[in-house]
Amino acid sequence: MLQEQIAGELEVAFSQLGFAEPSVAQLKKACSVSLRTLYKYFPSKEEMIVGALEHRHHRYLALLGYELPNHQITLSDREAALLSVFDKLANWMEDYAPTGCMSMNAISAFPENSQIITTVDTHKKEVRDLLSRLAGSEELGTATFLLHEGVSTSWPLLGHESIHSAKSTLKMLMKRDIK
């Protein structure tokens, strides 16, 4: 429980301060724990980053989580599910990622750290897999994933315009799949 609470506080701290800037002392203060407690659960700054990214990953997948019914899924059900992902993404970007994707920011700050790269890779793969399940095909799921990533990258510059564009493109892709 305490480890999860600390990971949540680290997520907030890294989201607000970036990855290069905060010292371990600042992170300790942001988590409201002793240095000993912080190091007990996260023995290095890199492990603190991984803990924060994993915490964020679980929160994001829970946000996107969408249960498709067991009966025959219509194309319109799939389209609605995929379009709702972009509505949820807009809310996420506004509330938790106004400066862009935290995962990609972590890789930019630590491009040589294999643990961080693996954590981000796992996150992106699971988001792509979820989108493929919602889309009903790997091809459309991958295209939707690319739109999703484009939104999270361009959000700081385009904001809601990126969502509108992604949704319009997705609708065109869905129409193409019908033919």
TrEMBL record:
<dbReference type="InterPro" id="IPR023772">
    <property type="entry name" value="DNA-bd_HTH_TetR-type_CS"/>
</dbReference>
<dbReference type="InterPro" id="IPR001647">
    <property type="entry name" value="HTH_TetR"/>
</dbReference>
<dbReference type="InterPro" id="IPR009057">
    <property type="entry name" value="Homeodomain-like_sf"/>
</dbReference>
<keyword id="KW-0238">DNA-binding</keyword>
<dbReference type="Pfam" id="PF00440">
    <property type="entry name" value="TetR_N"/>
</dbReference>
<feature type="domain" description="HTH tetR-type">
    <location>
        <begin position="1"/>
        <end position="60"/>
    </location>
</feature>
<protein>
    <submittedName>
        <fullName>TetR/AcrR family transcriptional regulator</fullName>
    </submittedName>
</protein>
<feature type="DNA-binding region" description="H-T-H motif">
    <location>
        <begin position="23"/>
        <end position="42"/>
    </location>
</feature>
